[in-house]
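DATA CLASS: polypeptide
GOAL: derive structure tokens

***
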Amino acid sequence: MIEVRLHGRGGQGVWTAANLLAMTAIKEGKHAQSFPFFGPERMGAPVVAFARISEEPIRIHSMIYRPDVVGVLDPRLLGPIVREGLKERTVIVVDTREGPEAVRERLGLEPGFGEVWTLDATGMAMEVFGRAITNTAIVGAIAKATGVVKLDSLLEVVKERFRGKAAEMNVEIVRKAYEAVEKER
């Protein structure tokens, strides 16, 4: 089972990102679940969402404390909350203009602990949407960094979830993010 934890802020589509991952896994014949966790429901408040993906039925129904994948939609959240529960092999995907090495340093991760990937999802979102909505970019980057879902399946789900121009723009940003995400050297 792959467990994904996403960190962002209210209004960034964190739960939508978790749902897109789960819906894509289901389209591929896997089992999945997604759910949010948030405090005060307001724009800008920190939000966490989760997704589980498995080849077998998922019998656990709790928050994810030891994620295999962490996605960060807002780099201002980098800190103890993101670092909490990381495993030696956790894949960390962050929206930032900084490189993976700088993120590793900001999180205080020792070399070889985890695998850090970065992309300027905010820049892409501003270019495509004119707003800093980074959720679909992060999902595209997670697809590339982990292979947990296939790009083609993800694009199909994005087209089903969004309509018209919104679907076209989200497909564009997923593709851009998939190509642009960088792994530390």
